[in-house]
Amino acid sequence: MASATNVRRNHQIRVPEVRVISDSGDQLGIMPTKEALRMANEQGVDLVEVAPQAKPPVCKLMDFGKYQYEQRKKNQEAKKKQVQVQLKEVKLRPKTDEHDLQTKLNHVRRFLAKGDRCKITLFFRGREIVHKEQGKAILDNVLEEISDVARLEQEPKFEGRTMHMIVAPNAAKSK
User: Fold this and answer.
1) Of 123, 120, 128, which is closest to residue 161 (Cα–Cα)?
2) CATH number for domain 4-79, candidates 3.30.450.20, 3.10.20.80, 3.90.1720.10, 3.40.50.280
3) What sign results for the dihedral spanned by CA atoms 77, 78, 79, 81?
């Protein structure tokens, strides 16, 4: 069924005849739209088009307000079960000490274990910018250290005074 916001109902249905289904799900057959509307009025419900692409369109006798409510509930439930993958960032410097680097790598591992992608950024300050190859070596070392849980998604790239790469969880390890 289509979303409740763009569904035609009652007098919005402009085709000469429709296939009608009762509120309980029984087939009532193909009939003129006017007769189906009369039937809906007698029962105190709406005539709602549930399959407009069918020949003839399929309409159901139902309470439209209740239908909208159920559709909203379904959408909320689907949204709740959705997993949002985030891009986390870990910042480094060329002079980052080995222990601090290991701590940052543990953060990266934790982010990847949750299923998030991770951007590893290396900042250059002052004269450090002259040694871009040293920065590339650091990022390569980081990638080698986390290669058991991560795969490279974006090659190390240099922009301004920063160099960054993006890693994602290994397909086998991700949830």
Assistant:
1) 123
2) 3.10.20.80
3) positive
Does domain 87-169 fall under CATH 3.30.2290.10? My reply is: no
Write down how long the chain is: 175
Amino acid at 154: Q
φ/ψ of 158, rounded to 5, equals -105, 125
Residues 6+ apart with CB under 8 A from 87: 116, 117, 118, 119, 166
Q: Are 116 and 83 in contact (CB under 8 A)?
A: no
Per-residue pLDDT of 131-167, as tens digits, reads 889 889 999 999 999 999 999 988 999 999 999 999 9
> Residue ranges per domain, the chain?
4-79, 87-169
Task: Return the pLDDT at 173.
Answer: 46
